[in-house]
Amino acid sequence: MPLLHTLPNATRLCQRRYNSIKALQAAFRDPSSPMYLAPGTKGPASPGEYELPSQSTESFGVLSDAPSLDQILKQGRTKLVQAGFHHPTIWEQPIAWGDQDSFQHVNNVQYVRYFESSRIRWMMHLGIRLGGPAKAEALSKGKGISLIIKSLNINYRRPVTYPDTLLISHKPILPKEPTQMLDSNSVNIQPPSDPAALLLTSSAFSVSQQAFVAHCHETLVWYDYEKLRKSVPGEEYQTAVWEPYLQKDSAGKE
Q1: Residue 160 has pLDDT above 90, yes or no
Q2: Which of 75, 151, 166, 192 is within CB 3.0–4.6 Å of 93 for a Cys-Cys bond?
Q3: What is the structure's pLDDT at 182?
Q4: Peptide bond preceding 163: is omega within 30 degrees of 0, i.e. cis?
Q5: What is this structure's pTM?
């Protein structure tokens, strides 16, 4: 590109930068500006040292109020337990700003990771019941007999936006009965004909909305990682899977 053509563009770019610096300096001198610096004072050395005004944190609503947050978290956990989930397996998933897409809500793909994190938490508790921390670690790392996911289906009910926190939990479903969800619009999954299969259902509850925002149906398969083939688990595994859900009240137990 000829030099004569690049000079005007460079001049305009410098002018814009100069105007931006002037505007920033003016904000520092303006007492009504949140960036105001009184004469003789210095600004923060880094953005991390800057403290937002109290009204800025209040704009985040209930999530900035710790007592209120604790209360609605407890209400959300109670809703999950009432829906048949086991209290200790509830996964707390904070929503990050970057989880949103151009439609200004959490991207649908993100839920796959959310439900995955909840499923791993559920598997860790299953491993504890099977043989303690060592068995839980083996189950989560694919050592010996463990679980591998075959398929999943997510039903989206409500959009989620930042800031929010989702409470998610998994529970098993009897192979001989259709998947029962929390609303009549949910899609049922056919019972598996494979004796090595394990059906799980999970739900995501929005703390801010105090409502269920998504449900997930998953088919897992018991797999022997030493023999590299599917495995039909014995009674020990079946008992460990169902033990928490045979109790009348699992709320509050850790």
Answers
A1: yes
A2: 166
A3: 45
A4: yes
A5: 0.68
